[in-house]
Amino acid sequence: MTTPAAPSLFDTLALNGVPLRNRLAVAPMTRISATDDGVPTDAMRRYYAGFARGGFGLVVSEGIYTDRAYAQGYAGQPGLTNAQQVQAWRGIVDAVHQSGGRMVAQLMHAGALSQANRFRDDTVGPSAVQPRGLQLTVYGGTGAFRMPRAMAEAEILQAIDGFAQAARLAREAGFDGVEIHGANGYLIDQFLNGHTNLRQDAWGGGIAQRTRLLRETIGAVRAAAGTDFVVGMRISQAKVNDFTYKWPEGAEGVAAVFAAVAASGVDYLHVTEHQAWQPAFADDGATLVQLARRAAPGLPIMANGSLHEPSRAAGLLDDGATLVALGRGALANPDWPVLVRKGQPVRPFDAAVLAPLGNIKDAELALREARRPAVTPG
Asked: What residues does the NADH:flavin oxidoreductase/NADH oxidase N-terminal domain cover (predicted)?
């Protein structure tokens, strides 16, 4: 019996009936370029449409705040909470579709990592535990994170409802699906993490019990958006404020989390590491993608983490990934699929794109449009 060959980066794919022209996605990247009211801008439309023109099959938006309470994390972050935001996102999604791409909205609640929120002066999290590290200066933060207040039961339920309502608005805006942000230290990840979740009620406990917020959010989003709408989930070990964090529960903990995600009915699992091809734990040679494949054998998996070299990207498909998402590689090469299909070298990432702030800059857009490919690949 022969083992089937891994798919090519340029093979087509369908996620819950949504056709993708290849296995290449743009990873979510915070760009703080919305208005003060959280309304997406024309610069954002040009930015996202450029990835679709460059041949990416799927574009995942930056983290979008989901309510007008505690979800917003950064000044300049876009939202999905009202009609004006929906209308602006519709123009962006239409531009991506017109260039042959598909787009999902990443739904995000910052929780205790909120640096700026126009709706609230305080922050909340699962427990009153001050986040490690310092605020991200690239997104306008300074100094230590604030001490959060532990969320009451009613506030947890309101946060879940915020995700559900944002998913409904994402569908209204024309998105092909949503990705629930359960990674990088934000609210859902705070509930997963035993360091930040010290609760003694039904929202805390061992790692399997700490998946409750994740599971109930997926269920609420699915009920609001419908069974024919793509719903994904992003999971990581590292946090934006704790880059080297590893789950103390090791591979067993990973299996519990990934199994909970799969059983909750998502259409894909998005896993991210700094270097996705490296072992997830020192005592186990498996990558996070391989661990995800073990725990959820039938679930499409998106891999992210320093995969801008084509051989690295293809290698993650060999590891069991279904799609590959590029972050910095896509910033440096919004036409990465075109370049690789033609056998041309990819450009190195220039950190100046994100300096002094991570917002979208006129010079960045001008350079992208000067490099606009004549033909988008299938």
From this structure: 9-345
The CA-based angle 181-75-361, given to 5 degrees, is: 95
Phi, psi of 185 (to 5 degrees): 90, 5
User: Phi/psi at 191 (nearest 5 deg)?
Assistant: -75, -30
pTM as predicted: 0.96
3-state secondary structure of 269: strand
Residues linked to residue 271 through DSSP beta bridges, in sequence order = 235, 303
Q: 17 falls in which pLDDT band (50, 70, 90)?
A: very high
Per-residue pLDDT tens for 168-182?
999 999 999 999 999
CA–CA gap between residue 67 and residue 161 (Å, rounded):
9
Band of pLDDT at residue 2, cut at 50, 70 and 90: very low
The catalytic site residues sit at 186
HSE-up (13 A, CA, CB side) for residue 195: 14
Strand pairing partners for 149? Answer: 124
